[in-house]
Amino acid sequence: MWYRITDNVYREKSGQAAKYATAGAAILAAVVACSPDPGMQSMEVTATAYTMRESETKEGNVGLAAWGDQLEPGMKSIAVSRDLIDQGLDHETRVRIEGLDGTFVVRDKMNRRWEEKIDIFMGTDVEKAREWGEREVTIYWSEEQ
């Protein structure tokens, strides 16, 4: 499925777009017109999952996120790599994740070693987090929150 998105993603998709553009400008126009919402940003990222286990949050203060939010089971929250903060995924940004229902809120940040990565909060469900594993997903957020 095609979406009109940020410059970075256009470049990533440019090989595919060029492949179809040779069939005619109408096809290229159709590809560009498939934007989910005006003003929406999107990006392909690596997505992993984490839980409330002390080893995955804050030692001595289970569920405490890097911005000071207290995570609770059932919250639709994500942590973002710090490079994504500069791209508009700041604290309390609302994010849709391709393939998942609902809207998630940025409430945590990841270690500086990660780039273009999110971590989806799975409450206390360790098995669900393991089952998720690591996947490439497209995320969507609005520039104007």
Features:
single chain, 145 residues, alpha/beta, Barwin-like endoglucanases, 6-stranded mixed β-barrel, globular, disordered N terminus
How would you describe this protein?
By secondary structure, the chain is of the alpha/beta class. The protein folds into two domains: 1-35, no CATH class; 38-142, RlpA-like domain (Barwin-like endoglucanases), CATH 2.40.40.10. The protein contains four helices and six strands. The protein has helices at 7-21, 25-32, 82-85, 126-132; strands spanning 40-50, 77-80, 94-97, 103-109, 117-121, 135-142. Strands 1-5-2-4-3-6 form a six-stranded mixed β-barrel. A hairpin with a 5-residue loop joins β3 and β4. The chain is globular. Mean pLDDT is 79; it is low at 1-35.
Reading the helices and strands in chain order gives: HHEEHEEEHE
How much of the sequence is in beta strands?
A: 25-35%
* N-to-C span: 26 Å
Give the domain tally.
2
Q: In terms of per-residue confidence, which ranges show pLDDT below 50 for 5 or more consecutive residues?
A: 1-35
